[in-house]
Amino acid sequence: MAAQASTSCALSAAGSLPLTGDFPAESVVASPNHDNSYIRRIPSFWSDSLRDNDITSNAVELYATLIHSIEDNPLTFRPVVLLSLAPLPVEPFVPMQELKSVLLKPCSSFIANIRTINELHIMTYHLWRYITSKADGLGGALRHTRYFIAPLVDGFSFTEGSGFPNLLNDISWVEMLYVRQRRATLDESIVDTLRIVPDVLLQIDHLLVVREASLNLFDMPVDAGYLRSALAPRLRDHNLLARLGSSICQYMITVFVFGTHQEADTALLDQLRGHLTSKDRLFQQAEALDLPPYIFKGVGPLDFYPAGPVRTRSRDHRHGTRQFSRQTIINCVYGLVAAAYLSRTALGDVHKLARKFGAYLPAIHDWKSTFRQWGIFEIGEQAPLAEGAQFILSFHVTVRKGLLLDHAFREHSIGWSGCRDRYKWLGRPVLEILSTEFVIERYPDLSTDAASTLVESMLSDATLAALCVVQTFHTFVERFDEEIIEQINNYAQIAVLARGFEALLSEFMGRLESQYWSPIIMPFPQLLADLVPAIAGALVASDDFQLDSVRTFFRQALLPFYVDYYPGGIVDTHLTAELMGHVLGRGCRQFDWGPLPEHPNEAGFYTAHVRFHGVLFHSEEGRTKNAAVELCAYNALQRLREDPLLIGPLCQCI
């Protein structure tokens, strides 16, 4: 088998994986059983890429990103390979350096033609079929086996990447091996079942949610009913169905789903989240969820209390002071990701999971308001901002319609009798509260009608959550940055002249790494700047939040945040806001906009520029800063309208 393969030496170690037969490029129909049929379709971006973006119109280069653990312990973390049309950013908007147990590593690329894509469809179906028929009696052999996402097929070859060894040196491809002789019948297929983990194929199905970056090659997941009927009786010991959302791949979905584009399969995302919110007991039992600890090593609200805030002892604990570590503040940002990731709607389940991992969250009565507007909601008095952020993020906000307001404010979700329904808990209609107490108070120049229009655009779940989080960190910056920044800057004046500046700075701030808080480049945490695009991306991903509303929300709520706190500022023009809306709609987190210094050769001229991930996208000159910005925004926006996909390759976010 391996000797018969006509591929590179990389494949000769794993075996050839040829499949016979000519399969149509549009779809492959497979029947897992008599009553459950589903269609595997090649995503449109595949056919578009093969037709438009490749010189030969016959092959496309795939890039592999290896996700593995530093300890490389298969009992706690199984390596995963993600495939993409372009290299994935090594750092999503959540800084991966903070995830001490997870690494992203670019690997060698390989070539896949249209036949290879079809063979991936067929091969995956046969793997499903074989596992469901042969899983009985395998015991624990399936549970602790390392696995990966990328299945091997005939028709591709590895190329050595600069500075990176062949991917086979990092992952054993034979751990998921489907071998088929040429011209062999279906019954002669050979699958090494003892080396296959059933979760693998679940991950392949669900990775499509990672926008165009995913190459799982399917538009539709296996029907949930079929999973329950076919797999649950055989694999109940593995908590397979209950752990659908507990893999590192699910975390990657959360990272990239904020940038879901219009052509993405939103029904798939709904179905995916439906797995976690189904009334089926397999999905609802918190004890059976069995979330792996590595998910919460630096990610999510469940890590708050072990990492940071410690209440000083006092006779009246409500008046005790709290000390917040650097990790706690960073986790407030991570919590936004974990909130969408977990999709847990009941606060009682949150507390159970927190206790399971050694985190003891306070009772609902101990939560305090995050900013002054929360006082209207009758939560309580002011409290440290980091704790308030935990309160918001502990709701496990999702980016889909109907979950935050329908679950977070219900009695059984909050756990106290004052929450009969969300409106009674708020004390008055949401629209009136936000219009009078938030919008008009914060933006007094807006008319009442304008404020109402703005608030109406904020009533989606994702928008309300984003509003709370933005105000939380906005207030945090206003109240807490002065003392911290003063300490950093004072120390920086001494340390900048010494060797080992980064080490000294980290030691001084409690091992605070300089890539998060830069005392020289910007006067506030970079994470706060990264948070706002993430929120805006979540708004775009919300199915009931239209582009006009995104523009309005950005201009009136998010843009002032940037103007005040983003290095260099952003000129408040309608074209700039519209351009930013397009950019954030693509899920890009690094956006640099602003006027450059005066033209060196001609006084009175300014150059405005748009950069994505540090790469210059467009520049224009003008006699004033505003003129340069206006012209640059207009022409850059025209480029995006003519070819919106330009942002993707430029930002490496596709």
TrEMBL record:
It comes from the Eukaryota. The keyword Oxidoreductase does not apply. GO terms for molecular function: ribonuclease III activity. Keywords: Hydrolase. InterPro entries: RNase_III_dom, RNase_III_sf. Pfam families: Ribonuclease_3. GO terms for biological process: RNA processing. Residues 236-345, 388-544 form the RNase III domain. This is RNase III domain-containing protein. The lineage of its organism: Eukaryota, Fungi, Dikarya, Basidiomycota, Agaricomycotina.
